[in-house]
Amino acid sequence: MQEANPDAIAILGGTGDQGLGLALRFAKAGRPVVVGSRVEERALAAVEKICKAVPGAEVSGFENSVATPRAPIVILSVPFEHMAGTVKSIREVLAPGQIVVSMGVPLATAVGDGATRTVGIWQGSCAEMVAARVPKGVEVVSAFQNVSAHRLQHLTDSVDCDVLVSGAKKARQTVMGLCELVPGLRAVDGGPLDNARIVEEITALLIGLNVRYKVPEGLGIRITGLPE
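Above: the chain sequence. Below: its structure as C-alpha cells.
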C-alpha cells in the first residue's frame, strides 16, 4: 500500500466544482493535493486544470481507491447519492488514524426533488452515515458543506465564509486547521459529529437564499460575537 505523505490532502470528487475549488486553494497554499475520481482520466484532467491555475503545484490524480491511502486526510466531495458507494469502494484501503471529511448534504435532488429541501437519513446526517461505514480507528469529521464552489475557484479573491466543523475533538481540530490555508475562511468549532445534522440543513437554506437573492456566486455564513 502507498505510504501517505503526512502533508497531503486527498479530495475524492476533486473533479466537481466544490472539490476542485478546495484542491485549487490547498494547492495554492503549498500543500500536496491528491485528486480522486471514480474514473482516473477525470482525476488527471482536474490535475491539468490545477497545474495551469497554480504553476508549480504538487498535485496528482488517481482512481479513488488509489488516491485514498496517499494522504492522512481524505475529503469526500461527492453528491449524497454517491456517498455510500464511494465509502464502500475505499473502505478496504482506509487505515486507522486517517481522517475522512464528509462534505455531503442529503439534498432532495437525490430523489428527484428540489435542492432547497433535504431527505431524512436513518443515522441522522450524511456525516454520521459515513461514520457508520468506515473501519474502526478512522475518524469522520463534517466540514466545508456551506462554502461556495464559485468563490473557492476564484483564486484572486478571499472566501468570506465560516466553516462549521464537527467531529471528535482531535480530528475536528486537525480539520479546522485546514481552513487557515484558504484566505477568508474561518473555522468554527461545531462540536460533536451529531451536530452535522444541523449544519447540513443550512446548505439547503443557502441554496434557496441564493435563488431568491440572485447570487450565483454563492452566499456564505458568518457567526458573530466569537472571541478572537
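The domain at 9-213 is CATH 3.40.50.720 (Rossmann fold).
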